[in-house]
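Morning F.,

Quick status update on the modeling queue. The single chain you submitted on Monday has been processed. Sequence for confirmation:
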Amino acid sequence: MLRRNGARGGGGSRSGSGSGSGARSSYTRLMLSLVAVAIVAAAIAATMAGCPGPEQELAERVVDRFSSEPKLTLYSHKTDKKTEIGLEEYITGVVAGEMKPEWPKNAYAAQAIVARTFTLELLSRGGTRDLHGADICDNHVHAQAYNPDNITQTIKDAVRMTRGEVMIYRNRYVKGWFSASCGGRTTNAKTGLAYKGEEPAYIKSVSCKESRITPPEVKKWSADIDSETVLQALKKLGKPLPNLSGAQIAKRVDNRAAVLRLSGGGKKVEIDGADFRVAVGPEKMRSIWLTQFEVKDGRLITSGTGFGHGVGLCQWGANELARENSSPEEIVKHYFPKVTIKRLWR
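Structure tokens below.
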């Protein structure tokens, strides 16, 4: 379970932080906090008689300050072991895993705010406990990339300067989405991620200066995908075809292929572009900002711009804004203009 520093079982942390005011008092404070959250949830549920669960779920994620840095359990896929770690130490490894070496400090610091928010929002929904019996893991598919071997002094300094800072909206954690390259403009969650919930009010499509510095191999890409890979992806998504004969973009949003149409054997299926990208392989089909999408000689030929889903923070854009001397908070607010940045611990 995610712990506030000093709670029972906190002595194994590698973060080097202090022990707080003792296990009993920390545990008591935590229990009182949980009781308070339960009261808020019950009050909201009572006023929303006849409504289903989301209101209570949101109530359970009301943001509160921590008396000290939280600790969490981290599962390593490489060693198959769990380690207790300070949240700031974890975020330092995430920034090192998610961004390239020798980037500006303020870009790292902006990533730290977003990654810290991503982590706490995920933990508020159980983290990776159902998968690994630990709060979080080091796999980017389940959580975020984590690579402590790439930590530099600049990254340490960047994380330290934003210590405890997270994004909130209406006093709740937001989803701290980020991607490598948005292609020049970010998009909404329903388009970029095929997000099934209601579009978050704090996610907006914004322009991005990343193209000034993004290298050509990131900016532009192309892929030649065999029909079997495509057919298996469609089967996985519940939209099977007997064979592959045609492909086209059925709907665009923010320049992106929001809906794709594929055909074969006299049948046609439509699928969210974001879902298809993940199913067919996000390293092959790097984005859904597509400039080509067609079938030739039984193979899917596609090309586009950008790398990733394009929702929230653009890492190459953050790099450019940092070069222009924007602060970490200014960079974050560019991509999440409606959020408030709040420090939850010192």
